[in-house]
Amino acid sequence: MIAAYLVMLIPLIGILFFAFVGHQRETGQLNVRFNAVTLLATIWLAVNVLNNGTILSAGKAFIVDSFNVYLIVLTAFVGLTTSIFSAPYMEHEKQRGKLTEKRLKLYYSMYQGFMLAMYLVLTTNNMGVMWVAMEGATLATVLLVSLYRTPESIEAAWKYFILCGVGIAQALFGTILLYYAAVQIGDGDNALLWSVLFDNAARLNPEILELAFVFMLIGYGTKIGLVPLHNWLPDAHSEGPTPMSAVLSGLLLNDALYAVVRNKMLVDGATHTNMAGLLMMGFGLLSFLVAALFLHRQKDIKRLFSYSSIEHMGVMTFAFGMGGASATFAALLHMTVHSLTKSAIFVTVGHAAQLAGTQQMEKIRGLIKTQPEIGWGLLIGTVAIAGFPPFGVFTSEFLVLVATMHSYPWLAPVLLLGIGVAFAGLFRHIQPIVYGERPEGQQPIKANLWPVMIHLALVLWLGLAIPDFLANWFSQATQLISGSVPL
Amino acid sequence: MNLEQQDFYTQAILSMAALVGLTSFLMLGQGRLLRLIFVFALQGLLLTQTTALAAYSLDSHHLYISALLTLVLKVLFIPWMLRRQVLMLNLHRDVEALKNNTFVMLGGAALMVFSYYVLHPIVQTSSAVMLNALAVSLSVVLLGMLLMISHRQAIAHVVGFMSIENGLFFAAIVATRGMPMVVELGIAFDVLVAAVLFGIFFFHISTSIDSLDVDRMNRLHEVDR
């Protein structure tokens, strides 16, 4: 359990360190080291869980089981690679005069703050604390979205603040209803603990839990970016600094979905109906289709990929909602591969935008001719995210499709259509960007593409063969969520 | 349900719920920012009283702490901060002309009825008092959202945002004698940080668009036109 406390403690030290010690030349590298140490701690934690099963801390404040442990490692991993990318990126932004020393200090401090909030969401056993940490993540990222202090970024940050704040207030109402149902059967202090609730789920009042879930889904759904509550997402992603887009898409959305799934497990236990699942399927499918269509009309490259995030979160919500072993397994896998691919894409997009000096897709041209590694990185990333074999996204989307064929065959054509539309939307924009004629005077920039290559290699690996220990994790998690073993 | 047959605590809670609901309506129709902030502080005071009452009647002492937190945050600190911002940005002289005030008020009434409708299933599981208390809290949440939709000033949005939190706290106190202490402290911390962030944002918004009228923040579009 020491590992779990370490995972929380290191980012906390990080916040204070960057806030007070101040900016030096090496701050970016220090941020990398903080994240690297946290990653080691999470791996230690994961090994513990793999050997001993679910860990419940003394006082039951934290729970680490097979479902959240892989998300914790994933969070630490993406946090690390993004920090490797962000160190030279932010330095470059400073040289262009877009940022001052003081803002960089704020940036690194809040980066650690965001990571802390993410770990807390994932490890806490208390549904109330989960809400607090989720709101904390919003507060930490609001300042990052407005980091450039342009009118656009301030507008985006304000929209994000208000919409997510109000949205997530609904989730608090849901949590209060959940607590209300819980105190009717048990004692007050432990009543919000997830492990206690899960053990007693069958005794919870189904009517109250159904109501609570509706509020939870709306609340955390705002954070997942489910249509029609997605409005803040493209703005926040496109106006904030690029490393932020990578962690928002790769981590924050996952964690919000994680919160919904934890709640769904409770509601399913209480109601014995598929009501929660059907709601999630509806919202997920709607998000998927609407985002696929919106991909076609984008002009800003970061907005394009933020719509792609909405689309993929839609697929995951749909799959978790469908339930059953194979769909749940697919959703867990999709969470992983989407995080890896999307953060890799945002890293390349950040470099491409710095190369062209703009985020307008019309003006970004000829990447392969100017700097082949960025061009190829973007192209391969897009191929991966569009769901081409042999990448991992293909595997998970295929599994979702197979599960749909089994449970709701009439929805399979809709899914296929959406995948096709999204694929066309992505490639009509990306093709000229990478292959087009390069503009006059476009110079290569200093770029570190190691994070991208590692991420994409991992996604490729997951597409070709899922390693045993990972498959084992996913199976255990699937069993925990859906109650049956996959395949 | 016959009101006279209820015990004193129940009657007091029901009156408090009615008053909290009333303050939400008062805020909804208010065009002057300073008065809006005053009514918001009033709502916070009602919430403090409710919490203290619950702490006393139900003998749950940890509620005194949350009463104190509410008093400091929602009655003193946030209204003081907002008032200072309004005076500093010289907004206290303008009256915001609310469009369709009648419709907004009718919409508010409809939202209240809707809250009762939504929460009706729980009446089988608990007392009618609980239904009233929860329905009023939900309607305070929804009225807070309506307040944010109908007003254009960023300060009014913050008041709406914070009054949503008031509604949630009311539900937490009345329905469940408050959340566990660690959650209450966490939420109070979040509210405090949010209040400070709002202050920072007022400054940035007013320097970037030269007013706090959020209708003038319209640079970002869903798709390019």
TrEMBL record, chain A:
One matching Pfam family is Proton_antipo_M
The alphabetized UniProt keywords are: Cell membrane, Membrane, Oxidoreductase, Transmembrane, Transmembrane helix
Q: Which GO terms describe its molecular function?
A: NADH dehydrogenase (ubiquinone) activity; oxidoreductase activity
Q: What are the BP-aspect GO terms?
A: ATP synthesis coupled electron transport
Name of this chain's protein: Hydrogenase 4 subunit F
The species this protein belongs to is Methylomonas koyamae
The NADH:quinone oxidoreductase/Mrp antiporter transmembrane domain covers: 125-415
Q: Which PANTHER family does this entry report, sorted A to Z? A: HYDROGENASE-4 COMPONENT F
Compartments, record wording = Cell membrane; Membrane
Question: Looking at the UniProt record for this protein, which Gene Ontology cellular component terms does it annotate, in alphabetical order?
Answer: plasma membrane
Say if the entry is tagged with keyword Ribosomal protein.
no
Transmembrane segment boundaries: 6-23, 30-47, 67-85, 106-122, 128-148, 160-182, 241-261, 273-295, 315-333, 378-402, 408-427, 448-466
Q: How does it sit in the membrane?
A: Multi-pass membrane protein
